[in-house]
Amino acid sequence: MRREHWNRKYAEAESLWSTTPNRFLVAETFQLEPGRALDLACGEGRNARWLAARGWTVTGVDFSDVAIARARELAAREHLAIDFVCADLLDYEPEPDGFDLVLVLYLQLPAIERRVVLERAAAALGEGGTLLLVGHDLTNVTDGVGGPSDPDLLYTPADIVAELGGALEVEKAERVLRDVADAERPAIDALVRARRLGLERPVGE
To answer: Which residues 6+ apart lie within 8 Å of 102 measured at CB?
Structure first.
């Protein structure tokens, strides 16, 4: 049902989201050395395309086949080689230890489902890899603008840190403000950036 909903939204608009990369993605990753990146819930691929243009090898995953088709078309138009995969993130299992950067941007799921995705996202990071999560904060319902109104689809930075459960070293966990066109106040987002340190090795290796 959710896939059908998003397919309709993507089909009804020439471009559902901005064509420019997310501002927090740019600010938090522009100093990273390009490597392998995984963009979970990539939508039309604006962030994946920005990374690919900067030299990253990118895999983008989304469950909307309409969004994935558009992402492939835009990447081809820009002569960017990106592996776009149409898959539900609750079923998708990325390559363990395979990525230098994993993005989870504005993926608003019920808490029990979000934990599944976060666990797999953390496991997909190789040694030294970075996880960047940005989404609508819980306080956005009352003090911000836009985004879901169902509290179970929202979270705080502290919620995300707790759900990571010590799997990664948290480098930043904070609320950030995002200006919204024609709105009297900014949106409130939760931002968490975390890094995977040395991988555990079996005793004797």
So the answer is: 37, 38, 40, 94, 121, 122, 124, 125, 129, 130, 131, 132
Q: What is the pLDDT of residues 51-97, one digit of tens each?
A: 999 999 999 999 999 999 999 999 999 999 999 999 999 999 999 99
Q: Domain coordinates of the chain in residue numbers?
A: 2-144+153-195
- Other C-beta atoms closer than 10 Å to the C-beta of 93 total 10
Positive/negative CA dihedral, 12, 18, 22, 45: positive
Q: What is the CATH number of domain 2-144+153-195?
A: 3.40.50.150
* 52/45 Cα distance (integer angstroms): 10
CA geometry: angle 200, 51, 16, nearest 5 deg: 115
Residue 109 reports pLDDT greater than 90: yes
Mean pLDDT over residues 182-200, rounded?
A: 89
- Record the pTM: 0.90
